[in-house]
Amino acid sequence: MKGLMKYLSPFAPDISGATEVLFRMNGLIVIIDAGGCTGNVCGFDEPRWKTERSAIFSAGLRDLDAILGRDEAMMGKIGDVLRLMGDAEFLALVGTPVPSVIATDYQALKRMGQRRFGIRTLTIPTTGMELYDKGQERAYMELLREYIRDEDHASDSLGQGSDENEISDEADRICAMGIFGATPMDLLESDTEDILRERVLGCGGSDVRVFGQDVKDFTAAPSFRENLVISPSGLAPARYLKERYGVPYEVRYPLPDNYTGFLLDGMKAEKVLVVHQAVLAETIRAQISEAYPDVICDTATFFMPFGESIALKEEDDFIQLVRDRDYDVIVGDPLLERAVRGKRFVPLPHFAVSGVPM
C-alpha cells in the first residue's frame, strides 16, 4: 500500500534539514508554524540540541493568524527576540505546511525583515512534505545567494555559464577546501563535523571549512580551491560554485582507515546491499568492490539519488528489492532489519531514518 510503513518510522522532513544547516551560525531561526514542527525539529531531528543551543523559535501561529496573514504580529515577536539576542548574524524564516497552504509571499517577508530590522533575512520555502536533504539543499543555496556578492568575486558577466565567470587569477583563490553535506543526519555514527575536518586535514588538506559552521565561509566560497561533497544535498551548491565561479568539486565520503574491513569484519558474502545517503553508500560500495572483487555490491537510498544508487520510494520497495536480488548481507539503519528478518544485517545508523542517537 502506498505510503504504508509497518517497520520504519517517518523520515526527517525538509524543515529539519534546513535547520540543521543553519544550526551553528548564530542566526535567529524562525519556523513558521504553530509549534508542532519546531518541537519535532528540536525534540527528534536535531541530535546537537542535547548538548548545544541554537536560537530556534516557533512563530506560534494560530488559525486566524495564518488565515488572515498577520505578518505584522509575527514580525513584532521576531523583533523582541532579536533585541534580546543583540548580535544575530541573520534572520532565517523556514517554511512549513502552513505557509505552503496559504501561499505565503516569502520575498515580501524577506524585504520586510531586511527593512524593519536591518539584518540579512533568509527565506527557505520548505513545506514539510519533502525529505531532509531537500531542505538542506535549499538552505545551502539560499546562504550562497545571500552571502556572495558578485562584485566582490567576478565581473558583471557572472551567470552566463562561461569561463569568464571563474576567478581570473588562481593566486586570488584561498588555499581552502569546503565541505558540503556534513550534517549529523548524513555522517557516520562515530563522526562529527570536527572529526571529519581532522580526517580530511590528515589526508593532505591545509585549510578545511565545513559549510554550516561559519557564515563567512559562504562569502568566501567563490575563492576556495575546491569543494568536497559528502552527501547529495551538497551537489547543487557545489555545481553552482563550479558553473558560476569555476570552483572544482569532488564527490566522496572520507571514510576512516580500513572502514570496510571493520564493517564486514571478515563476513563471507556474495551479494551485499548498502542502504544510506547515496554518497556514503557509493563510497562504501567502491571500497567493498576494491577489497572484495568477487562480491556483488549494490546501493540504495530513500533520499536523493547519486551514482548507481537504486531509488527507494516506499518501505515495500526495499523489501521487494531484497527479495528479488536475494542479498546475503544488508548494511543499513537498524530499523531496516525489522523489514527483512532472517538476513545477515550490519548496522549502519542513519539519523534521518531512525533518529538513533549520534
Protein model, in words:
By secondary structure, the protein is α/β, with parallel strands linked by helices. The chain folds into 3 domains: 14-147, Rossmann fold (3-Layer(aba) Sandwich), CATH 3.40.50.1980; 161-251, Nitrogenase molybdenum iron protein domain (Rossmann fold, 3-Layer(aba) Sandwich); 259-354, Nitrogenase molybdenum iron protein domain (Rossmann fold, 3-Layer(aba) Sandwich). Helices cover 39% and strands 16% of the residues. A 5-stranded parallel sheet has the order 11-10-9-12-13, with helices on both faces. Helix 9 links the parallel strand 5 (174-180) and strand 6. Helix 1 (14-22) packs across helix 2 and helix 7 (132-147) packs parallel to helix 11. The longest helix has 16 residues, at 132-147. It is globular, with a radius of gyration of 21 Å. The two termini are 32 Å apart.
Q: Can you give me a brief rundown of this structure?
A:
It contains 15 helices and 13 strands. It is of the alpha/beta class. It has a 5-stranded parallel β-sheet with strand order 11-10-9-12-13, sandwiched between helices.
